[in-house]
């Protein structure tokens, strides 16, 4: 069961409670929140953004993530819908923890941390990253599709933001 503490949002330079403590969501291993709000992050060419928000205290596995689709930025008619689907799936990957900021929290298959931890169980060194394969998820490879996205694109692809990587490729 996933339970949450009360939640606050900051606006007008003050914290406002938006949700009280909840009773939890039984049998949930992960929760994905999806929204379509026009925020400051939606400026420029950004079509969507995502992140993991909450990690399991014992395993560091993401248990809550979000995707925000910027209104009016993704096409819903052919052929733009194919690109929009790709963007959305890419953002779900970030929400599941596939991002450079999650690398220090990844673990070996036996559950031990790949990165040394301090007394608060956080990675000691900001620039020591684990492997690209998070051991949080058990994969049934018989159901996997061939995924070419990011294949053999090097460190810039995995370590820079998606926007920064796209800008590098445009040069």
UniProtKB/TrEMBL annotation:
One Pfam family this chain carries? Peptidase_M8
Enzyme Commission number(s) of this protein? 3.4.24.-
Signal peptide (residue range): none
Q: Taxonomically, which superkingdom?
A: Eukaryota
**Cofactor(s) of this protein:** Zn(2+)
**This protein's UniProt keywords:** Hydrolase, Metal-binding, Metalloprotease, Protease, Zinc
Q: How is the cofactor bound?
A: Binds 1 zinc ion per subunit.
> One Gene Ontology cellular component annotation?
cytoplasm
- List the GO molecular function terms: metal ion binding; metalloendopeptidase activity
Gene3D superfamilies, sorted: 3.10.170.20, Leishmanolysin , domain 2 (3.90.132.10)
GO terms in the biological process aspect are: cell adhesion; proteolysis
Catalytic site: 91
**Binding site residues for Zn(2+):** 90, 94
Q: Which InterPro entries match?
A: Peptidase_M8
Q: Per the similarity annotation, which family is this?
A: Belongs to the peptidase M8 family.
The name under which this protein is listed is Leishmanolysin-like peptidase
What taxonomic classification does the UniProt entry list for its organism? Eukaryota, Metazoa, Spiralia, Lophotrochozoa, Platyhelminthes
């Amino acid at each position: 069961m996933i339970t949450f503490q009360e939640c606050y949002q900051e606006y007008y330079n003050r914290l406002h409670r938006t949700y009280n403590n909840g009773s939890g969501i039984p049998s949930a291993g992960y929760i994905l929140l999806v929204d379509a709000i026009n925020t400051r992050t939606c400026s420029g060419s950004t079509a969507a953004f995502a992140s993991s928000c909450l990690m399991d205290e014992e395993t560091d596995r993401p248990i809550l993530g979000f995707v925000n689709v910027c209104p009016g930025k993704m096409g819903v008619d052919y052929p733009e819908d194919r690109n929009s689907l790709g963007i959305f799936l890419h953002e779900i990957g970030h929400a599941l923890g596939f991002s450079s900021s999650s690398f220090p929290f990844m673990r070996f298959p036996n559950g031990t941390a790949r990165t040394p931890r301090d007394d608060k169980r956080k990675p000691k060194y900001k620039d020591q990253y684990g492997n690209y394969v998070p051991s949080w998820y058990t994969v049934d490879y018989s159901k996997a599709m061939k995924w070419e996205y990011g294949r053999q694109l090097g460190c810039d692809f995995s370590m820079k933001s998606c926007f920064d990587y796209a800008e590098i490729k445009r040069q």
